[in-house]
Design goal:
Strand 5 (about 125-130) and strand 6 (about 135) form a beta hairpin. It is built from eight helices and seven strands, in the order E-H-E-H-H-H-E-H-E-H-E-E-H-E-H. It has a single domain, classed as Rossmann fold, CATH 3.40.50. The model has no long low-confidence stretch (mean pLDDT about 90). Strands 2-3-1-4-7 form a five-stranded parallel beta sheet, with helices on both faces. Strands 5-6 form a two-stranded antiparallel sheet. The chain has helices spanning about 15-25, 30-40, 45-55, 60-75, 90-105, 115-125, 160-185, 195-205, and strands spanning about 1-5, 25-30, 80-85, 105-115, 125-130, 135, 185-190. By secondary structure, the protein is α/β, with parallel strands linked by helices.
Amino acid sequence: MDYVLFGIQGSGKGTQGTILAQAIGANYFETGARLRELSQEDSELGKKVKSIIESGKLVPTEVVMEIVEDFAHRANASTPIIFDGIPRSEEQRVALEALLKKLGRNYIGLFFKLDRDAAIARLTTRRLCPVDKKAFPASFTGDLCPEHNEPLVTRSDDTPESITTRLDLFEKETMPIIEKWKAAEKIIEIDASPAIDEVTKKMLHKL
């Protein structure tokens, strides 16, 4: 079973997805990270991705699906994949469903539900590790990343205006996907408002 993560920024889906991957031994596909990795490879797909990134253009859905298929072929067929950052639009939903069907991979969505005000509060107070971009909430009292010993930083685009734009886009483009999968009984909803450990317990219990 593959898992597709959904949640507005600030919901902690990346944190919980990483925990889940470690718990079940899954491969983790994060769209942005995979694009960056491929752009460093001396392969036909890597060169294509690098060219698109350097041009400043958005990566077309068909290329994203090519990247997903490449990732799936490199992974063990029996090992679950956790998808983070895809699908974000109706076009991507249709393409991803078709690809997973073609590959014979079953899947379900995990929706980390958090209300808008809570998301804004988290995003405007969080800090990130500059090395791996791991987010630390306001409750974290240290100034250094425990793993990399680097000073934590604030994202330059974590401004109220930018956050509002990103949340609006999620509601417009991604929420309809979640509603469609809910109707098809392909969504497990998880309350993302408690502390990280509590959300993890809820997630593992539901799975």
